Amino acid sequence: MTDSRLLLVVAPQNTAVGHLDELEGAARALGEVLQQNDLGQCLPALAGGVAVLYGTEVTQVRIEAAVRAAARRAGDVGATLVLAFLGHGMAPPGRSELYVMGADTKPDVLSTAVNVGHLIIEAADQPGVNGVIGLVDTCHAAGAVPDVKALVAGVRGGRTRVSLLMASGADQKAYDLVFSRQLTELLRQGLSGAGKRMGVSALREALRHVVTGQDVVSLEHDGDHFAVHELWLSHNPRLLGADRPGPGTFGNEDLRLALEAVGPAVTWPEPWTLHELDRVRHEIQRIKETGTGIGPAALVQRAVHIVDGLRICLVSRSFLTSWMASKLTTQRLRKALPAMPADAHALVPHTTGTALLTDLLELLVLRAPRVGDSRTALLTSFVAALGADAGLDLSAPEVAAWADVCGAQIELNDTQENLSRGQAERRLRLVVSLHATVADDWPESLDLWLLDDGAVCERAEVACAPTQAAVEAKVGEAVAWARKHARQRHAPLKHVDVAVPTSLILRWKPEETDFGVRLGVNYDVVVRWSMRLNPPAHLWWINDHARAGLERMSSCATKAPVDWLAEQDMGQPQDFGDLLRAGRYTRAVAFTHRPAHLKQLMELLLAYVPVVLWPDTNNDFSSAEQTLLDMFWDRLPTELAEAYRQRWQGGSAAPSDRLADLRSVWHDLEWLDFCSWFDSHDVVNGSFS
To answer: pLDDT digits over 573-598, tens only?
Structure first.
């Protein structure tokens, strides 16, 4: 047996069930990354490289013939056969069998479709085949699991090996090729802790963190006790050359291009040390001064700039791993990222651990700064945010020494000043509650609390007429009351939480409360659900449930911890309620569109999930626009308040402008801590004073 791969990607397009614009691109991207990660050891299934069968010419007969031909070829050379099926799948009623629809397949006519399980059995039983790995991104994908009895019999006497990775359960749909896209990204970036070769199990666990709304399923069967290696899908890019730590994704590319511009006289720094980087810089400078064997002067100067930036990254990586030690975590790295332009933020990798640290440092130093900007401003913000989140002393001598080496003394001073200002602005928070609402109408009183570092320092209750105008007038008076107490505490008031009952959440935008100027112009307004302040006896569990959900959300290291729901995901309210009670949705939930029965859904959701987002208008949020939450998640809900302000003031052409079309009800740990205060205190006390 060899350790080679033979890859065949099948992506038929069946026009009878709709057009998938991105089908060809997803199929080719998956095939290409598999080929690249095999280090050139793959065998072409068809002339010209990896076979990708795509389009309206890929019929049932052509698919079956191509798979059988690929199996024979794999058997001839002892290769592992990798089969990927993307597109439309169907299953017969009452049977968990997957049929992939070819271009000529008629809906619900099984004899015109491809039985994936049968093809996998045939391929695995082909003499000489080292094993079959199947990747299935269709509806009913888990129906591709073959009959195990057939795998343990056959002409090979059961010496068959099959590993399957499937995008959805046997009775589930699969949406937007998200499984294929996320799998391609994982194969491209690699997995920390997965070893030098990535198999189905490691990829399954990683995919379950990033593919939501559908179950990622796997199967691994090994009946060949003579096999030398376990079945593996791809080499792990994260561990290629792991015994020789070097630059990250951005540094590797930038330095390679820089040295190509300089010419062959300067060799790659090996090993990756400050001494070697200094050697490279010296040689570039020497060649620049002599003017021999170099490219354009601007490109040579850029090479010096790149080497200097990589030196800063290497110094910073050593400093952070020493200074923060065990407090340096993947989640903390992502949380500390400063605000960047959208195109720079789109480059944030899906790596973890040390690889993520290296990539983020290079992104902040080499890619994110703009012409004229300080190359260390974003870096110092990142380092300071990491230290502050870990409770470390930013005035420690080692921090100053690091900044001195990087030439970032003033940037560090600016960052510390900004941090101090931000901490002061976060100190006070006004809570205005409308929980006294009666019969789905406006309340006859408002309850107020002023929090200082999360602790209640002032309380009041004020009566009002049960109308929107009267309530908004009292909200303005509440802000004036809180500002008076804020001045006495020598701290600014920037944050206002408004606790709103379910009946008013969809009818009222508190940040638009107008008392001469809109409330949201000068204050970051966050909508909370008033029921969490003092839940009725039968809902005693909701805050504990939300706290558990927030803990799960905090472990999501690469994407926003959001389950996006389309219309077909919700079904009947009763069915959706059953899913909520079973713990199906515990993270943030966002709607891709504004459902007609949103009020009914909101009554269900608010008790079960800590964060709910929905479009304010009838404009749907596309897959591309949904990634805005990945970009801004760590700055939400504050970034929503900023987006509303920008929209009022004329909007912008930036992608983030679409955030202004999202509404939210947001509960974080700080709010749940405040809710727990009610367990041992009276809800209201006092009046305006």
So the answer is: 778 888 999 998 989 999 999 988 88
